[in-house]
Every structure is written in structure tokens, then in C-alpha cells.
Amino acid sequence: MKKLTALLLAAIMLLSLTAAMAQEGPSAQAPQAKYVFFFIGDGMGAPQTTATRYYLGTQENPDSPYPVPSKLVFDNFKYTGLMTTYDASSFAPDSASTASSMASGAKTLSGVINYDVNKEKPFKLVSEYAKEAGMKVGVISSVSIDHATPAAFYAKVPSRNQYYDISVQGLTGTVLDFLGGGGFKRPDGEKDTPAKNLFEIAKENGFNYVNDNEAIRAIGPDSGRVLAIVPDKGDSDSMQYEIDRLAKVAAGEDSVSLAEMTAAAIRNLDNDKGFFLMVEGGKIDWTCHANDATTSIYDTLAFEDAVKEAVAFAEKHPKETLIVVTGDHETGGLTIGFATTAYDTHFQYLQNQKMSYVKFDEQIAKMREDGTGFEDAMAIVAENFGLTLEEGKDLTLTAKEREALLRAFELSMLPGAQRTIGEQEAFLYGGYEPFSMAITHTLNNKAGLAYTSFAHTGLQLPVYATGAGADNFSGSYDNTDIFHGFMNAMGLEVNAEIPALAMNK
């Protein structure tokens, strides 16, 4: 009897344990990501985010005797990883290859979007897998929406310069439900090959074209398939640089931010089956190509504001939302610390800058047209950047700095055809407007910042992740592992060949 009772008790305990284990099965595992956000700060590495933290900290703690960094919203994410960015052709890759690697899990050449190194086999994308699973898909960029990074999540072309083909694939394909940000670089076909207007193609394929600020803010779940382009485009069919956009808003003009475009996409894409949304802060890269540190910080903050929209959404869906934030590569070789400032930084000096290098280029064009002299030009510089010839100021120019600015000014006052651009000028100005570059370099250096390049670098990048499946993004790994992290988090299986790196000879 005792033996029977013991057996019965053991059986009951076993059944209870089995039931508990069954209950702890799928439901006890990390929840599957249903709402997936992928934020890519183009050109944004640790130096760019570090500079932004200290710029904010300086504003928030103006009386502090030492620099105090402020936190960005993604600094609060639970998981942090470190990612390599090299591609099949370079240690310092471009956006086409790096975005392709993150979208597909495969390496390719610089300049190639979602094709193997032989430019023969197309890759299958994480956005395609998400679409097959019933999720909606959105892509946003602060640059033109046919640029390399946004294109990598909906198009496949041997060359990133095939802008029209990229756009046609996005508008005629079945992946995209929302496409927004800047405009198209080739709306009427490539330069030598006119073709059907892209807006006509969009309409024929069921896109609701929205090109008004208030209409963008009114986009919702009933707006259908959306193509949203800001009406006040900046250089190269992009959105405005954030420093210039904020100046417009302060002057009483209306302008949609990257965060507002992200909020519109969220409203449009939100549904019971979930969504995958990629948002690019593309102009961080452009500012760093031009070595404009202040403008880079403003665009990093605009990018952070977009991330905040995802964080607010995640608060309503905490168990089903995944947010991942990273860059594609670092741009400019930004360093915090400069020879003449030794161990000091003066981020407060950057607050004197009132416009981007692009806006100041417009000022230079007017100076050239008006025949403005150096002294008058420096009065404009003092107003917009704080650098001054006046003695006794924080940003008073040294004799050497004055000489460098004068040399750059004289070169900028010459029509392009009359300029002599030698090795030294190319090194100093990188093909940009000499006077603008001399001004931003001088301001950067006085603040304790410097750039080593006008191009990309091979720095590893931080990856920040929070929410469902975020643990897939911790540790040290390659950018191709980003794709696999998303697939694991969404509970999806890879059902297509991922081409090896080897190139056929």
C-alpha cells in the first residue's frame, strides 16, 4: 500500500512537472518580435554619438567645470553589441554594401546593392521574409529614398547609381507599404534615358502620394499604401539638415521632421500581424563627409527623436516590440581631442553655429556675386559661427587661423573654372567649398574636435537593442549577423541561399 501510494505521488509530481515544463515552453521563451524597428544612422559611429552626448551635456550643465555627457534614448537599451563593417572590397566600406549585409546576411562589393560579388545572384532580404510572414514593411530616409541605405531594404541592383531602377523596384514590387522621406533623384528616368514618371508609376501601383506637411501628419491606418515626400526638400532631394530645419521653424515656417515622418509610418503600418520599419538618418553621413561637426550633432539628435517615437510605441506593446539602433559605417574619422586644446574640450563653442555648411555655401555664392571683401565676410562668419577677428573673445582667431581663413576665402571668391586645386587644397577642403571647410575646421578644432578624413572609415560600430529578441544583438559580431538577429527575433527561418564571399575567377 505504501509502495502504491509512493508511486501515485511520484506520478502526480511527474505530471505536474510535465505540465509546468509544457507551460514554460514557447510562452516562457523570449517573446517573438511582432513590431520591428531598425534605425540606421548613416555614418554614425561611437565618435558621432559621443560628441552628441557631450554637446547635450554642455547645454544641460553650463556651469560644470568639467564635461558631463548626457544620455541618448538608446543608451537606456538593455543590450549593446559591437559590429564589424568591412565588405568584400574594402575595410572602409560604403552604404550600399553595408546596408545590403544587414538586410540580407551576405557580403558584397562597395557600390552593389543586394547582389553577390559577381553581380549575378540577388539576395533575399529580411524585409521580404517579414512580408511573407504577413507583416507590413516601411522604409524611411532623411536623404533621397532611392539612396543606397533605404534601397537595400527593397531593391536589388548591381550599382547603387541605378536610381531610377531602384525606385521602380520599390514602387512596383510587393514589399513596401510605406516609403517616405526625401524625394527621388531620377523621377523621369536616368539622365540619358528618359522613362515613365515615378509618381505615375506610384499611382498605378496603389500608392497614395502625400507631399504636404499637414497631410503627412494626418497619415493613418486608413491611408493605404503610402509614398510620403516632404515638400521642403534640401540638397540632393533630401530632407533639410536639422539645424536648418529648426531655423525655418523658429522663423515661423512649417517643416516635417524625421520623427514626424516616423510617427506617420507607425500609424500607417500598425496592424495585428505586425510590421518591419527601417528608418535612416542619412544626413549624419553627409555632414561628416563635409567635416561639419555641429550639423552632424543636430542630425544625430533628429535621428534620436525618431527613435523616441519607436520607444513610445514599444511602451504600448512592450512584449512584442524590438528596436535596434546602429550605423552602417563611420564617416570622417571624427576624433574628440585636438592638438591645440590638449586634454580640454569646449563643446559650448559649437552652439555659436547657426547653419549647415550647405546653407553657408549659399552665402558664399552671394558674396562671390556681390564682390564681398574679407572683413565683411568675417562679420557674416561671426554672426553665424562665432569666429571673430575681434580681440579678447573665446573664438578670436589666431594669426595662423586668420591666414588659413583668408587663403580659403580668396579661393572661394574665384569662379570654379579659375580655381587651382592642388594636392594641398584637396587635403584641406576635400572638394567642398574652401571657405566653408576652413570655418567648420576652425570651429571644430577650437571645440577640441577634428576629422581625419572626408571619406568613410573601418571603425567597428556600437549596436543598441531593446525589447523582444533584443538579446540576439549583444556581443561582438559582423554586420551580416544583424540579418540573422532579426530573423531569430521574428521567429523566421532562412529559406534562401546566402551566397558565400568567394568571387569566381
What does this structure look like?
40% of the residues lie in helices and 14% in strands. It has a 10-stranded mixed beta sheet with strand order 7-8-4-3-9-1-10-15-2-16, with helices on both faces. By secondary structure, the protein is α/β, with parallel strands linked by helices. It has 2 domains: 336 residues, Alkaline Phosphatase, subunit A; 108 residues, no CATH class. The protein is globular, with a radius of gyration of 25 Å.
Main CATH class of the largest domain: Alpha Beta
**Radius of gyration in whole Å, from Cα?**
25 Å
Helix amount = 40-55%
Q: How is the CATH topology of the largest domain named?
A: Alkaline Phosphatase, subunit A
CATH superfamily of the largest domain: Alkaline Phosphatase, subunit A
- Distance between the terminal alpha carbons, to the nearest Å? 80 Å
Give a short synopsis of this structure:
The chain is an alpha/beta fold. It has helices at 2-23, 46-60, 95-104, 126-132, 148-151, 163-172, 198-204, 213-217, 242-250, 258-269, 283-289, 293-316, 357-370, 374-385, 399-412, 423-429, 434-447, 480-490, and strands at residues 35-41, 79-84, 136-141, 178-181, 189-190, 193-194, 207-210, 225-229, 275-281, 321-327, 330-331, 335-336, 449-450, 456-457, 461-467, 475-478. Strand 5 (189-190) and strand 6 form a beta hairpin.
Overview features:
about 500 residues, alpha/beta, Alkaline Phosphatase, subunit A, 2 domains, ten-stranded mixed beta sheet, two-stranded antiparallel ribbon, 18 helices, 16 strands, about 15% strand, globular
